[in-house]
């Protein structure tokens, strides 16, 4: 909301400086984005008089002009179509700076140009660049433009859901309250004559639940023309474009009172009859922006017997648009249901000044006042005649809420001590009715109709506190017993995971839970889908989501996943195509973050995100339940693993990511886990693994354990991103990516940590080389060693993998260092030999391995 100070001073005396006023507004809860001094950069831009103007021969748009700046006449070439002799204009003299352009003398089409006549966009007033900015005829010549058009504008970013603050009078009321000044509102006086409005038009409201009030006036004999300079200037300062006097008046009153208005050409409204109803199935309307829009049955329309003439609260239709030929006006001032207007505006993708105000909540009592104010201005500025009376549909007038209130409530919530007199003075200044009770501190507060956000006494506490000043609240030390810490909460667990990953050099990122199905579809490599892995895909960690790829899978035949085949939860009214669905996985968001950061830096990028995925459920499809939300950890690495002066940088790979995951597992004290090679359409073949953990016998409360203790539970996947996926996301380097289900991960975390003393007896170390098939994971052999050795095996470490002579083709040699130790005695060589023999036999039986000779 932009607030020009000169306009604001018409409603309230403002004696403080703009900066001080901005600070007071912010402290009152109206956050100020910026204080803009319009005209402070208009050096060497003065008012001037165009003496004559002629089109330059050979040019289709340039004109030669002579311009007087009060002391000298200048030759200026101008390309604007509206330049004409006799105009008062803004002249940028030689040396003036317009944006990045410094005005210098130059020739154009053989004519010397010694300055520039400025357009509104060049002056920074608005985006209009189709013609020069023409000043009022009474403007003096030769004065700095800043003295004529200069203005201080306070730009507010209003966070509160308060429609009363989206107008000049609403802001003036706030200023008057904290400054102790009187609020002056315009005197609205309408002179009426002729036939009553009720005889000139008729009104039917079919859906009063969406339109609780509709007020209309009829103004005849108007003359459409340009608005006076003061009105056009004020609209320009507010960021609006001047159209004509009638349309400008409706916008002006909206900015003044906060009530949106719409002017219909009375003679274009069939039978002069307005019908307010919901749209019918398949109905369309061509709006004022010349776009044909499809409507749904939950949208409210303003219609006549021939069809729609406007989308209620959003935009009017072209059929009844005010034009230069318009002479009679049907003026609408209505109150519409806020939630319906918001849904309509979002569904149609058209947020307007009117819809944004209706969404915030407009005072239903304003319609009559705003209609009268606009009618008054149309008489003054357009020469119209106002028909007697208003046509007003208002079956259930709004009832003012009354709330009991005491000073104790302010102190209880804010520790700010106030008296009854302070409460009365503060709330009355804001427009509340306050009736003090005799022999009691209690007051009875009547809430004004424009404050629909005030529903209970806590809201009144906020009003008192912000007006007296939040800075008056004294700092106090909390008293009473501290609450007991909550151990095992997900907040605590996620904070622990953050600390571990940040300690490993990772950077946290936060992305929207909304994404697009197209982004998720890019996670599937057509090459791997063609190889036949498109049946049950691991989409989003360990969760198996059935997808059917388009095309037939087979060798050398590319198939793909179309966005509409992604089984995500799609929003009915998405804000954009990029935010249309709840994410099934964090992987697409992480790769997008990686791509955007890769545009700005080449150093190693290590990102993680703790967020939620949203999986569809059968109950959701049936409309009886919600989506399944899964707490998830995602990580991505790309670029140099480390930078050293001693050697060339090495790109991070799968094993760097695996190291980060194992570091997290160690920090969580998860000892039983395994990685299994798998194939996944997001990852490079042969560089992808499934992580599983053994469910702990005493997993923390709240952790998900879908299987019994000791069973292996799938936690997530990790691997190097497939080249086709890398290309789809436009990644400049290869990347390694993982996604882990936190709830399943914590099922492997022991509930308590038991520490064991060192053995007093010596350990025995033996090397063991096993020959197995190429497809046997080293983890499988290691698991057999642990299971067979039992309590006597203290550690197992793989130190060599070998293929080639004399190892047979299709085989590999895995060499382990195994440490044996007992807590009760010194192990003999015979015991260790026997145990190692049993291990070799068990490997042979389970995995077909043999001892390397």
* Mean pLDDT across every amino acid position: 87
- Per DSSP, what share of the residues sits in E-state strands of 2 or more residues? 25-35%
What sort of overall outline do the alpha carbons produce when their principal axes are compared? elongated
CA-CA gap between termini: 84 Å
Task: Please compute the radius of gyration using only Cα atoms.
Answer: 38 Å
Class per helix and strand makeup: alpha+beta
Strand elements, count = 45
Number of helices: 24
Give, in spatial order, the strands making up the sheet with the most strands: 29-34-35-41-40-39-38
Most strands sheet: 7 strands, mixed
Task: Indicate the percent of residues in helices.
Answer: 25-40%
* Low-confidence blocks of residues: 532-558, 701-706
Describe this structure in words.
The protein is of the alpha+beta class. The protein has 24 helices and 45 strands. Helix 8 runs antiparallel to helix 11.
Secondary structure: elements and pairs:
Layout: E1 2-4, H1 5-8, H2 18-27, E2 32-38, E3 45-55, E4 63-68, E5 73-78, E6 88-92, E7 97-98, E8 101-102, E9 106-108, E10 111-113, E11 116-117, H3 120-123, E12 134-135, H4 145-149, E13 151-156, H5 168-179, H6 197-200, E14 202-205, E15 213-220, H7 229-237, H8 245-257, E16 262-265, E17 273-278, E18 284-286, E19 292-294, E20 300-304, E21 307-311, E22 315-316, E23 329-335, H9 338-348, H10 353-360, H11 366-382, E24 385-386, E25 391-393, E26 402-405, H12 407-414, H13 420-429, E27 433-436, E28 443-446, H14 457-468, H15 490-503, E29 507-508, E30 514-515, H16 517-521, H17 526-530, E31 536-538, E32 544-546, E33 581-582, H18 587-598, E34 605-615, H19 618-622, E35 628-638, E36 640-642, E37 650-651, H20 654-667, E38 673-677, E39 683-694, E40 712-721, H21 723-728, E41 735-741, H22 742-746, E42 764-773, H23 778-789, E43 793-802, E44 811-820, H24 829-847, E45 850-851
Parallel strand pairs: 14-17, 29-34
Antiparallel strand pairs: 1-13, 2-13, 3-4, 3-6, 4-5, 6-11, 6-12, 7-8, 9-10, 15-23, 15-24, 15-25, 16-23, 17-20, 18-19, 20-21, 21-22, 26-28, 27-28, 30-33, 31-32, 34-35, 35-41, 36-37, 38-39, 39-40, 40-41, 42-44, 42-45, 43-44
Helix pairs in contact: 7-8, 8-11, 9-10, 12-14, 13-14, 23-24
